[in-house]
Structure prediction request, 475 residues.
Amino acid sequence: MKLSLRISPVVLTLSLLAPLAQADVSLSPIIGSHMVLQRDMACPIWGWAEAGEEVSVEFAGQKVKGKTGADGKWMVKLAPMKATTEGANMTITGKNTIALEDVVVGEVWLCSGQSNMEWTVSASGNPQQEIAASTDGMIRHLKVNNPGSGTPMDKVQSGGWQNASPQTAGNFTAVGLYFARELRKELGVPVGLLGANWGGTRIEPWTPPVGFQEVPALKNIADKLDEFPKGKNGGRVDIQSPLALYNGRIAPLVPYAIRGALWYQGESNNGEGMLYAEKMKALIVGWRKVWQMPNMPFYFVELAPHNSGGSGDALAMIWEAQAAAAMNIPHTGMSGTTDIGNVKDIHPKNKQEVGRRLALIALAKTYAKPGIVFSGPVKKDVKFNGAKAVVTYDHAAGLKTRDGQPPTHFMLAGEDKNFFAAKAEIVGSTVVVTAEGVTKPVALRFGFNQMAEPNLSNGAGLPARPFRTDDYPAR
Prediction:
C-alpha cells in the first residue's frame, strides 16, 4: 500500500513562519501597558528573542539598546526618571515591534503574605463605598497568579496591570489599596502594587535560598535546600514547602524596580515563638539580596488579636517575634493592630486603618516626611520599685487611653511566676502598675494574650505594643 502525504498550503505557510514567530521579541509579562515604573531608580526592562538579536526600548526620551544572550534573554535598563502623572507610550523593537500604552513613573511596592494581604476590597469593610470611591487611575495593581514551583519561574502569570476604578478595585489587595491612597495624598505620584500573596501560607515558601543561608538558626533548612520544594500528589509542588512560592510568585518579579515590600503574614506560623523572628530575618535578607537592595524598606503588620485556641500565649509570642524583627532588623517597621481586630475573626475587616498605618511608617521612614507619628507607644524600660512596676515608653507623646478609662490588660507576677490582673494609671509619660497580692513583682506583661485588646495609646491614637519582661514558657 502506497502512502500519499499531502501538505495543505495553509499548514506549509504556518510551518515556514514558525521559526520567525519564535524569534519575535517578547516581554516579561510584568512589563506591560498601564504599568508603574519606579521613580529615581534604574528600571530594568527585559524579555526574550532570538539569540544575538539587538533590542531597543524607547520611553520618555530615552532609547536604550541591548542584545539577546545565548539563552534567548535580553535586558536593558532605563536611567532613573522623575515621577509622571500622564501616561506615555513605550516601544520595544527587535525584528518586531511591541507598543505599550499608558506607562507612568511613581512608587512601586510589593504586597505579599497570606490571606490578610490577599483579602480584597470587596471582602473588607464598607466594600460598596470603597469600590465606588476607587476612581484614582494613578493607583495600579498587578495580581500574580503563578502556582508554586520546584524551580524559579521566569514569567509572571497575571491579568496584567489594572488602573484602579469601580470596575477593578474590588479585586485589589485591600491593605495595598488603602496604603496606596495615603501615599497618593501625601506624595502626589502614581503608586503601583504588585500583589504576590496566597492565603493560608507559611513564611518558608516565600523565602529564597540565600535567605535561609544567611541565618544560622535556620541551618536545618539551609542544609537541605536541594530537597525543596517537594512535589507530591502526582507531581504537584507543595506550596508550604520552603522555596515553593519564592520560585513561583517572587522570582518572576525580580529584578523589576520596586521601592519596598509590605508583608502581612504569620497566622500559619503561630506557635513558633521567637523562631518566627529568625524566619522573618531570612525572608527580609533574602529579598534584599535577590533585588540587590541591602536597605530595601520592609514594613509589616502585627497580627490582630483573635481566638486561635489554647491558652493565648502562642499568638502573643508571635507578636513578640514580630516586635523583635521590627526592633533588630534595620529599615523595617511594624503596624500595630491590637485596637482594630476582631477576636472572633482571623480576617478583621478594617483594612483601611491597616493600610493607613503602614503608609505612616513609609511616609516617615522611607519618604522622610516630617512630623508624622508612625508608631504607638513601645516599651522602653520597666523598673520594679517595691510593689510597683513603672513603665516608660518611646513614641508616647500624649499618652492616654482611647476610652478615658484606666489602662487595661496589665498583669504582674511575683517570684512564684503566677500572674495577677493589675491596676494601672498614667503618670505623666509613664504607666505605674500594681496588683493586689503581689507585694514584690518580678515580671510584668501588657496585652500578652491572644484575646487582649488594650486601650492604651499615644496622642495620635496609635495602640501601645504588647510586651512581657519574663521569658517563662508558654502555658
In short: The two ends are 84 Å apart (CA to CA).
